[in-house]
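Give me the fold.
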Amino acid sequence: MKVESSRFGTLEVDDKKVIGFPKGLIGFPEEDSFVMVHHKGSDVVAWLQSTKTPTLALPVVSVHQFGPAYPDVPLDDAAQRAGLDGSPDDMAALVVLCASPGTPATVNLQAPIIVDAAKWKGVQTILEGTKYSTREVFMVPASTTVPAQATP
């Protein structure tokens, strides 16, 4: 499958690796199909590129970057409430990164994106009862290796 991207040009993608978001993403309810593009030079940041809209690519970070303190509420429960019914072992969780010039980079820890890597299906959900916000300061960790299960 070919995916047009204003950021990455034309991408050749295995259509089996397209992540379906039946409910879209928060703020983008019509965007229901994305591919993961790994960021050159970084094992920490990747991009969710829309297969429909060439100008829509969201930088994302695996929640594994935040260690055992995050999440502070069960992601399994949030995934099930949002409609994912796969095994917890197949779930990967990502958060959207915002890096505007002149300001510290932040991540949205209140609304992670959960992907069932076995079924290539995802949801973005709001964590109920979390202490985290939509704008938590993000620092690139000293070790930039992302665990194999962190990205679908």
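Helices lie at 75-81.
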